[in-house]
Amino acid sequence: MKNSNTIVVITGQTATGKTKLGLSLAKEINGDIISADSRQAYRYLDVISGKDIEDSNFVEVKKQGIYSIGYYTIQGVRVWLYDMCTPKDYLSAYDWAVAARSIITQLHQEKRTPIIVGGAFHYIRTLLYGLTAIAEPDKELRTSLMHESASQLQQRLKELDETALNALNQSDRWNPRRLIRRIEAAAATGGGASFPGLIDTGIHTFTCIGLLYSDTDELEQHINERVQARLDGGALEEVDLLIHMGYRPEHYGMLKTIGYQQLMAYSKGTLTLEAAISQWKVKEYQYAKRQKTFITHDPSFILTSPDTATLDWVMNVV
RNA sequence: CCAAGGGUGACGGAGUGGCCAAUCGUACUAGACUGUAAAUCUAGCGGUCUUAUGACCUACGGAGGUUCGAAUCCUCCCCCUUGGA
């Protein structure tokens, strides 16, 4: 290791073997894994989200607000930030990053190396590059604006903070979620403050690895296999159980998640199983595409393909 | 064999004489992203050329025909679905 106070980040497209690589690296360099996975952070989302917790039990180390911070032990490696909350709870990239940061600090004190592993690139970016503390989410406001059209929202934002509106690119200008967020910020600050720069995260040394398939067919094939494995692993039973426990697809959008969405639709009878599975796969391809866009546009990442990312290769990089 | 309804771009599905290279949805391609991100959104999406709200070519099962002009009307052929036997 070049620096004892560093962190390693392993991200990449779906089904590229991030976890496997992370585990072998952790064993080698005395590290802990911090899961950067926006779905594995939820309790009960196990099979479809791909949590491989074997026989391990969750060990809660502390509470941070409604979130429980703890770990599972997989192959002798501690894996943090699974099961932070229930599928009904709100968990944002910000919340996750705060939790991740606290673990990183703790691990550094223990002279252990945090290895961030996961495909939630937005979460990782929030952790690495910063957070804005301008305004907390305003649930009521969000609900009240939920059904407004983009042009109505633009109008609202214009009245509150025209600069913020003008700063938006074409895509964001028609994106209700972005608009609502800006309105939220403008309302909280009284407008005019616009969006501030990022707050320093205190994390400055990191090695980032991005695993990407160069070939689309290969990617799709791996995704297909993975989906099949999830089905074989009890995906349908998991969905039934979640429904039985009272969780719905619309629950805070948390179950509004690839795989769960489709299988819940099947369970409700609005999709055939065949259609549900094929849509699931398609959503996975699309997600993987977005991951690729994100990762390739970030110069901090060392990009490589899944088959060249061996432990030896990683050891040379970190 | 008869009756009825159909065959449209990768798929679903509009259009029923000119404003149709053809609404819309999906898929696909590229992109955006500062507290919902496995989310949300933007653009493109027959081909060639091109500064273009531009030109030309090829296209709405096949072959002909009517018309200044057809995915749209007519004739014949092929295929599909449902009802009748």
UniProtKB/TrEMBL annotation:
EC number(s) per entry: 2.5.1.75
Alphabetical list of SUPFAM superfamilies matching this protein: P-loop containing nucleoside triphosphate hydrolases
Keywords, comma-separated and alphabetical: ATP-binding, Magnesium, Nucleotide-binding, Transferase, tRNA processing
EC class of the enzyme, as a word: transferase
Pfam short name (any one): IPPT
GO biological process, one term: tRNA modification
Residues that hold ATP according to the record: G12, Q13, T14, A15, T16, G17, K18, T19
InterPro entries associated with the record: Dimethylallyltransferase (IPR039657), IPT (IPR018022), P-loop_NTPase (IPR027417)
Reactions mediated catalytically: adenosine(37) in tRNA + dimethylallyl diphosphate = N(6)-dimethylallyladenosine(37) in tRNA + diphosphate
Residues the record lists as binding substrate: T14, A15, T16, G17, K18, T19
Region (Interaction with substrate tRNA): 37-40
Residues the UniProt record annotates as site (Interaction with substrate tRNA): R142
The keyword Iron belongs to this UniProt entry's keyword annotation: no
Cofactor(s), by name: Mg(2+)
Chain's role: Catalyzes the transfer of a dimethylallyl group onto the adenine at position 37 in tRNAs that read codons beginning with uridine, leading to the formation of N6-(dimethylallyl)adenosine (i(6)A).
Family: Belongs to the IPP transferase family.
Name of protein: tRNA dimethylallyltransferase
Species annotation: Candidatus Roizmanbacteria bacterium CG10_big_fil_rev_8_21_14_0_10_45_7
Lineage summary: Bacteria, Candidatus Roizmaniibacteriota
Name of the gene: miaA
